Amino acid sequence: MKRYSFSLIELLVVISIIVILVGIAIPVYLSVTAKARRSKAKFQIQELMTALSSYKASYQAFPFYPANSSYDDVLINTDSLNGTSGDPYNDLITTLRGTRADLNPRKQIFLSQSTGSFVDPWGEVFFVALDYRGDGEINESSPGNTTPKIYGASVVASDIAIWSKGPDKKHSSTDSDASNQDNITSWSN
């Protein structure tokens, strides 16, 4: 019985087909992964909004009531907050997890993820803006304070606004800036 081996042409055809299939599969995989990360970020934003709403329902106020009563809206991220030191975002997360007794005396668990950092799928903290005035909206700035509170919108009609900088890990205080296009927010997307 005579055995035939593959010719060089046949091997090149098979290799070409494999390369074409891989060339199709990689962009599809990257697209699916990007969509999964966006979905996870949206879920995390919703989870954080629910936790903050539940905290407010239990304690009739948001955590970190500013010492300065003229505050309208407050942005919580990793920068120090008026009258506090350290990492207000981490303090917020530990409060919602029920591990910070000074701000959550009943030690209620509002945020189900009990350990680790609460960060977006790209490893960045979420930005949280809270309406301390109680007017039902978060503005970019307060009277007498031009520091932007939210990025990518002038006004959010809610008492909570949460956003992630998205895959490019950038945002800008100019609403129309291109770096805001991939932000994942609680008020749109």
Describe the structure.
With 189 residues, this protein is an alpha+beta fold. It has one domain. Helix content is 32%, strand content 11%. The chain contains 2 helices and 6 strands; from the N terminus they run αβαβββββ. The strands form 2 sheets. Strands 1-2-5-6 form a 4-stranded antiparallel β-sheet. It starts with 7 loop residues before the first helix and ends with a strand. The model has no long low-confidence stretch (mean pLDDT 81).
Q: Could you tell me the strand content as a percent range? A: 5-15%
How many structural units, i.e. domains? 1
- What summary fits the major beta sheet? 4 strands, antiparallel
Find the count of extended strands (DSSP E, 2+ residues): 6
Q: pLDDT under 50 segments (min length 5)?
A: none
Summarize the entry for a quick read.
With 189 residues, the chain is of the alpha+beta class.
List the helices and strands and how they pair.
Blueprint: H1 8-59, E1 73-76, H2 88-96, E2 127-131, E3 138-139, E4 155-156, E5 160-164, E6 184-185
Antiparallel strand pairs: 1-2, 2-5, 3-4, 5-6
Keywords:
11% strand; alpha+beta; elongated; single chain
